[in-house]
Amino acid sequence: MKRTEKQSFVEDFRGRLQESPAIFLTDFSGLDVKSMTVLRDELRKSGAEYFVVKNRLVRRAFEDTDLPDLSEWLIGPTGVIIGYAGPVEAAKAVADFAKNHNDRPAFKVGVLENSVLDPSQIQHLATLPSRETLLAMLAGAFEAPMAALAGALEAKMQEMSGLLEALRDKQGGEGA
Hints:
- By secondary structure, the chain is of the alpha+beta class.
- Helix content is 59%, strand content 15%.
- It starts with a helix and ends with a helix.
């Protein structure tokens, strides 16, 4: 790559880093090209991208951003995952892929909304349900008390109706 191409790449990469809510650094050593292609496809399906870039260029891309400094983890073979759709989907895609490929790629570190995550936190993130599932669970949690209230009100209406009918029958019986 020529110097101008590197500068252009760093600027573009910096923009991608800043627009992403989740960034993960991984160690991809031990994976062949075919496996890397499969991983990239899986990540693309989950709304993320996987980059294998020189550590020096990644350091430059992190400069002049409000993101935490990850220089100490930019050693050896490093792949950068940029999760646009959300952190859970990208982490889950990598964790699922790693189960079938000798635990590779391995998480080095992650950044979630400017907070640094260690590998165990990223693995925990990968076990969470997807955003859609969490929203459905939240909607269900809100619906349950409303359904209970509606049921209680309906029961009281039925009770009131029964009392009024009994009162009408009683008054009808006294008048005869």
